[in-house]
Amino acid sequence: MNCIFSACIGTTRSAFAREALRAALGKVQVKEMEKKHREGYRRKPVVKGEFSVWEEAQALGF
Long-range contacts made by residues 8-15, C-beta under 8 angstroms, separation at least 24? Predict the structure, then answer.
């Protein structure tokens, strides 16, 4: 880069690194929550009719 870091990307190196770390940690957290969600459905699969009340409510516009 031929320019000062803050002028090129509009932030300081410290702020850039901090935001990159937050984003990376957020992705890790989402992956962990998705894994727990999958494991929960694997341990206790949906049974037929489990959501029928909700489906009826949606059909009525609730």
Answer: none
